[in-house]
Amino acid sequence: MEVQKQLKTWLKSSFDNDFVTSSSRKDCRKSEYQKDEALAKTKRKKGIQSQLLFGERGGNNCVGESWIELFAPQAKEDLAVNKKKVEQIETWLIDSLSRCKNFLTTIKCAPIALLTGPAGCGKTASIKVLAKVLDLDMKEWVNPVDNSSGLFDDGFSNNRLLVSATTQKEQFVDFILRANKYSSLFVKSTSGRLIVVEDFPNVFLREPEVFHNVLQLYSKTGRCPAVFIVSESGSGSSIEHHLFPKSLLAELDIMQVSFNPIAPTSLTKAVSRICGIAKVTLSKSENESLVAASNGDVRHLINLIQFFVKPGSTSRISKECKSNSFAGQKRKKNMVESSSSILGERDHSLFLFHALGKILYCKRDSGKEPEGQLPIHLKDKERMVLLSNAEAVFSRTAVTADTFTLFLHHNYLSFVNSAYITEKCCTSFSDANIICTEWSGKEVLDEYSASVVARSLMFHLEEDKLGGGQFWRPFYKPEWFSVLKLYRDGQAAVRNCFKEWAYTLDLQTQIIPYLGVVQPSADNAQLEIIKKYGRFSSGAVRPKTPGFHLSEKEIFEEFDTHSTVPVADPNPRVEDTVNMCESVVPQEDYIIEEYDD
Amino acid sequence: MSLWVDKHRPTNLSKLDFHKKQAAHLKKLVHGGDFPHLLVYGPSGAGKKTRILCLLRELYGAGTEKLRIEHQHFQTPSKRKIEIVTIASNYHIEVNPSDVGIYDRVVVQELLKTVAQTQQLETNSQREFKVVILNEVDKLTKDAQHALRRTMEKYMSTCRLILCCNSSSKVIPAIKSRCLGVRVPAPTVEQIVTVLQTVCKKESLSIPPELAERIAEKSNRNLRRAILMCESCRVQQYPFVPDQDIPEPDWEVFLKETAKLIVQEQSPRKLFEVRGRIYELLIHLIPCEVIFKGLLKELVNNCDGQLKGEVTQLAAYYEHRLQLGNKAIYHIEAFIAKFMSIYKKFLEESMADVF
């Protein structure tokens, strides 16, 4: 107890002059990585030994041990990542470290790097290896589980009350600004420090502006390189676009390195490396099927190997040690076949951009003859075999059928040249929309509707000889949602302004256009509405641009298309007595009275 | 100053300008003491609303003209708060349930319940029922219409409904059979001309009969439109000249231009341009059905006699789909694409015949 108290006072005094006041202790976290590594090392040694000696039953602390940690790359040569990418990061690190050393003279803003790429392509692994090679003190931000976790609990309840809980955001700011100033107490002097953030506090996803401010602050005050790692995925909201918009990248001079899924050859090498360490032998076909199933994801690959080698409770290694019987081999074979279906390929999602391309360019296999010949009178319906299956493409995009069709609808016209084919494509959209109108079957039929559209486009676009993939065309986002929103907002606004007319339809089509010409003494709000919606020349509400480009890795966020409730009245619950007599007939017997209930 | 349309609206059943026989029937109905639920339908600008207001006045006297605007709040079963504007007097309440979109069922049920549960205070001097006017009944969802059917019967003793809509075809038969249907046909051109002349007389203006006739022709037998046109003519140029320009709403001009584009060139590129223009119309709050109707009218005018039937049939087919579906643009565009293809084929064939 005494020691803890001492520690606390000591800590506090040391940070008194810091401009971020906080009672939470961050430097514990700084050392986490080092501790982890040391632990992992010992575990690694123990784990491999015990595993090799006793199978998995022997080592008591390596039962839950994942091979990903066990066989993490130790040197640059071990990395399965493209050499050039690693070099790029390394030169950046060395360069920024030297710049940071004499920061008073040369540095303008702190070096920040952003690593993006699909999950399991070695982003974190490369940074960890490089940090080790360059002998850097790596500090990693880990989201605290609980806001009060950083507090000292000395057992006195009243002391607890005194300490105020800090928000995750404050803790993060605290970490990032302090980690670059003070070196860790537990580590001997290293050649530099490196901040790594992989886990973003949730607050920032909701308020990206706050994160931008933190970054700007860091860029001004930071003295060591910071690396941000973002995994991109086809589904969910894209962190990359939220947190690191293009303008910010340019402003703070952030270096972006985007990783690609790892090539099969490097994966095969990784498999052989791991097999070498773990003393496991895999046949060539096994090797290939594993690599194919992993879809360029190293992490997934290593998991697969681990899982594959030890299916269920019986370890394959021990089995091989025991006997090499015929039954065993047969089982092995079955395992290989089932591995791709049971262990499964990694579900890799497709970006909307690529999915649209797959449908609209509809590449066909020109070498293969179509299966089954069509009779003579249907010869014009014959098509080459498709390279990609429409349903598979749709299911791999993370959007609803509605959105998918809208995107196709908005973009297909630039792929067609003839009016006759346009007609055929266009009717399929109408058909698809009709299919999924029935509310009860919507969930099932939605997929069918996407399929109808995609298939019909693929079929008809082929007929249009110029249509298929000759030149590149940009994709745009559909306007329908924004138009619909404007339409509804407009209706609500009109309804709000012209309460005395009960008919909305006639109001919009007849009265407002003419009011624009006649212009009786309407109030300002009404005049504005009339100008905006009644005139086509002056009230240009729709943006004149052809549409918003859909960038390659963008993720489309869907609108709430079902909200039909009008926008809330700015001053609701006003029992307003609109001057009906003024607008109806100026006669004495039309008395307006206050309404009171 | 208010619009002539409102200013010169007749307030008494006996002062109505046309369909006088029907007005007399309505009067008799009121004097009979009681009346059933009414379903008033007819094209827009035929005087449905005027007739309903006159009827109310006949029922309750001048008290129905003391109007107030209220905001009513309801909560849907999914705990969503909705708000709707109602126009009410002490004797009646008027509401447009389709304003709240898919939540119209809640409005119909709750509103009727609250109105019907409060009794009139002096039953001997007043009627023992209140009147609820529901506008745009044809736009109600099927759900709301079915809910209405039950509610109508339940509160028959304390409240009468007057349903008002353009077309009775979208009202479910169950409701139609519970109401007395009153069809208000569009006025004839001659009737519109007389109305225009009386309105101008009241405004102490003189309108040349030729101009009145032209306005009446151009109004598509829509009296509201005719009076609005007349008033905007007055703003643009007075004294009137027989051949003066009659202003049309901007959106109609825009729609006509769009139709011209379609006839000019039939290509995917053009279709894309037309799509943009349809979005533009939607943003200017022109409903899809109106766009569809306007397009058909213009396109039919522009094409050859033998195509007219086919095009109209297509339009009916896709308009029906538009009602069923939820993304109007698909259906409008499909219709336009179909038209383009038919028209292009026709042109090519007739060209081949020439050579």
Question: Summarize this, please?
Answer:
Chain B: Pfam families: DNA_pol3_delta2 (PF13177), RCF1-5-like_lid (PF21960), RFC_C (PF22534). Chain A has 597 residues and is mainly alpha-helical.
Question: How is this fold's topology laid out?
Answer:
The complex is a heterodimer of chains A (597) and B (355).
Chain A: H1 2-14, H2 27-58, H3 67-70, H4 83-101, E1 112-118, H5 123-133, E2 136-141, H6 157-162, H7 168-179, E3 192-197, H8 202-206, H9 208-221, E4 226-232, H10 239-243, H11 246-251, E5 255-258, H12 264-278, H13 284-294, H14 298-309, H15 316-322, H16 326-344, H17 352-360, E6 364-365, E7 385-386, H18 390-396, H19 401-411, H20 419-435, H21 442-463, H22 480-497, H23 504-518, H24 524-534, H25 580-583
Parallel strand pairs in A: 1-4, 1-5, 2-3, 3-4
Antiparallel strand pairs in A: 6-7
Chain B: H1 4-7, H2 20-31, E1 38-41, H3 48-60, E2 68-75, E3 81-88, E4 92-95, H4 104-117, E5 130-134, H5 142-154, E6 159-165, H6 173-178, E7 180-183, H7 189-202, H8 209-218, H9 223-236, H10 250-264, H11 268-283, H12 288-302, H13 305-324, H14 328-354
Parallel strand pairs in B: 1-6, 1-7, 4-5, 5-6
Antiparallel strand pairs in B: 2-3, 3-4
Keywords (chain A): ATP-binding, Cell cycle, DNA damage, Nucleotide-binding, Nucleus
Pfam family, one (chain A): RAD24_helical
Protein name (chain A): Cell cycle checkpoint protein RAD17-like
Describe this protein's structure:
The complex is a heterodimer of chains A (597) and B (355). Chain A has 25 helices and seven strands. By secondary structure, chain A is mainly alpha-helical. A five-stranded parallel beta sheet of chain A has the order 2-3-4-1-5, with helices on both faces. In chain A, strands 6-7 form a two-stranded antiparallel sheet. Chain A starts with a helix and ends in a 14-residue tail after the last helix. Chain B has three domains: 4-183, P-loop containing nucleotide triphosphate hydrolases (Rossmann fold, 3-Layer(aba) Sandwich), CATH 3.40.50.300; 189-236; 250-354, Zinc Finger, Delta Prime, domain 3. Chain B contains 14 helices and seven strands. A seven-stranded mixed beta sheet of chain B has the order 2-3-4-5-6-1-7, with helices on both faces. In chain B, β2 and β3 form a beta hairpin. In chain B, α12 (288-302) packs antiparallel against α13. The longest helix of chain B is centred in the C-terminal third of the chain and has 27 residues, at 328-354. Chain B is globular. The model of chain B has no long low-confidence stretch (mean pLDDT 87). The interface between A and B is large, with 85 and 87 residues. Chain B: This is Replication factor C subunit 3-like.
